[in-house]
Input
Amino acid sequence: MLIITADDYGKTRHATDSILKCFSSKRITSASAMVFMEDSERAASLALKTNLEVGLHLNFTLPFSACNITLKLREYHNKVISYLTKHDIFQVIYNPLLANSFKNVFLSQQQEFMRLYGKYPDHYNGHHHMHLCTNVLAAKLIPIGARVRRAFTFNQGEKNPFNRLYRHILNIYVSRRFISTDCFLSIAPVHPENGEEAAFILSDQYQHLLNSIHRGGFRDLLHN
Output
């Protein structure tokens, strides 16, 4: 089974509309939504009128663009952004001084998703894949048994040995604590708000590739 997920749902009006167009054309099977962004409210109301599967696209690296952000949440979020965007190594290093900030930013996004969609997310992933950073995993913020996107799948030689080892360890953790897929591959990746990527997703060539493939969503993944 192939799950095709479009990220950044609700990030902007254009991103929302592009993803919905791809879904209505049966080119994707699910989306991951950002909360506290400029189009999050409208995106949720539109998704609820469809059977679009929507997960939470956790955001620890991009400033919130909505108006309904408390000063305290923005303060926590800015601390997390400043830390994770300094250098790639900081996603690997646990920072106990930011434990409270990560917890509040995670719980605020999960609560906002539930307010908008009336339920827990169908799955969890992260902007720039930071749902798998050490401060999130070590604190066990994502509920055990949730459906979670694993780290990228790379063949031998695609990345350096340390990178592959790190991702292998991440995937072992994800498989033991959560429900996930056997692999995770990128289609450039799937961000339909990018004109070139949207054109490819909506093309006859892409449809031809999908014709012989069984497609589904994270809801179809069974417990281990």
Remarks:
- The chain has one domain: 2-220.
- Residues 2-220 form a domain with the TIM Barrel fold (CATH 3.20.20.370).
